[in-house]
């Protein structure tokens, strides 16, 4: 079973469409210059809604090996929902991924588990892959229930999915205390969480699901800590926030992950 690693940049509310265009051109140049092999590592960008179309145009015109997606989606398909964007609208822009349940969405918007389940179903129905974000806050960590909390969040959202649906999701383990704080999980604790999530999937769905779902780590990832983290067997890539706004830094992280697959570490073909 092969899990191709993914390095996804979550731009959050940064970059208008002009800045996005400049960024994509620079990133494409940096990766080409480094002879980056996109067969070994997928690179994805998650721009704000207003920049997705600009990214699409560049990717298609220049045939770039870049995926892209959105940071949020409406649970409804069409109609009188002012300000909302549907999964079909994103899919028709060529989006492959939608981030679902990011801690910032859970905190600043009324997104509870029921709503997140509906987002996951909507994204899957539109033929895209939800990147389900889970992770404990500092309080849960202090109480020693970090793993149970993260696995519980996965369980709450995925329990009623079919095997086929579950095989199409990705999970991002993003401890809330690590997001934007400069505090990064140790490779051991990122691995422990990723393994616990994978074991949970194995207990709930068929073996193919547990073996194929990609589990990303997110939270203060930089080119200085990416190497150790990606060496962990159940960490299949990163959801990068702040460091994804700097093309040099983001390209450096992607190259570290791509190189990790060359070492015969077993990541490809695993
Ligand atoms: P930082 O990389 O800035 O910590 O953000 C992580 C994140 O929230 C990605 O979704």
Topology (SSEs and partners):
Blueprint lengths: L5 E5 L6 H17 L8 E5 L2 H13 L5 E4 L16 H6 L4 E4 L2 H6 L4 H13 L3 E6 L3 H5 L3 H13 L4 H4 L3 E4 L13 H18 L2 H6 L2 E4 L7 H5 L6 E4 L6 H14 L10
Parallel strand pairs: 1-2, 1-8, 2-3, 3-4, 4-5, 5-6, 6-7, 7-8
Helix pairs in contact: 1-2, 1-12, 5-7, 7-9
Bound molecules: 1,3-dihydroxyacetonephosphate.
Please give a structural write-up.
The chain is 44% helix and 13% strand. It has 270 residues and is α/β, with parallel strands linked by helices. The chain has one domain: Aldolase class I (TIM Barrel), CATH 3.20.20.70. The protein has an eight-stranded parallel barrel with strand order 1-2-3-4-5-6-7-8, surrounded by five helices. The protein starts with 5 loop residues before the first strand and ends in a 10-residue tail after the last helix.
* Corresponding CATH architecture: Alpha-Beta Barrel
Distance between the termini: 5 Å
State the secondary-structure class: alpha/beta
Total domains: 1
What's the short story on this structure?
Helices cover 44% and strands 13% of the residues.
Keyword list:
single chain, 270 residues, alpha/beta, TIM Barrel, eight-stranded parallel barrel, 12 helices, globular, binds 1,3-dihydroxyacetonephosphate
């Amino acid at each position: 079973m092969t899990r191709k690693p993914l390095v996804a940049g979550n731009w959050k509310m940064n970059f208008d469409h002009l800045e996005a265009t400049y960024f994509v051109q620079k990133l494409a140049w940096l990766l080409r210059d480094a002879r980056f092999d996109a067969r070994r590592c997928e690179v994805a960008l998650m721009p704000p809604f207003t920049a997705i179309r600009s990214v699409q145009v560049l990717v298609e015109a220049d045939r770039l090996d870049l995926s892209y997606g959105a940071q949020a989606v409406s649970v409804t398909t069409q109609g009188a929902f002012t300000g909302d964007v549907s999964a079909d609208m994103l899919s028709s822009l060529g989006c492959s991924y939608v981030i679902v349940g990011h801690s910032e969405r859970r905190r600043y918007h009324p997104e509870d588990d029921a709503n997140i389940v509906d987002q996951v179903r909507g994204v899957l129905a539109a033929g895209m892959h939800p990147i389900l974000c889970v992770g404990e806050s500092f309080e849960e960590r202090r109480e020693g229930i970090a793993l149970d909390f993260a696995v519980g969040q996965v369980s709450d959202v995925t329990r009623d999915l079919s095997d086929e649906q579950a095989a199409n999701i990705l999970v991002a383990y993003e401890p809330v205390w690590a997001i934007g704080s400069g505090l990064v999980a140790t490779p051991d604790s990122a691995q422990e969480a990723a393994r616990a999530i994978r074991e949970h999937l194995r207990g709930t769905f068929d073996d193919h699901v547990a073996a194929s779902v990609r589990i990303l780590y997110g939270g203060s990832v930089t080119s200085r800590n990416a190497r150790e983290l990606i060496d962990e067997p159940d960490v299949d890539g990163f959801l990068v926030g702040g460091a994804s706004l700097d093309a040099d830094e983001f390209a450096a992280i992607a190259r570290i992950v791509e190189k990790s697959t060359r070492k015969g570490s077993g990541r490809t073909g695993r």
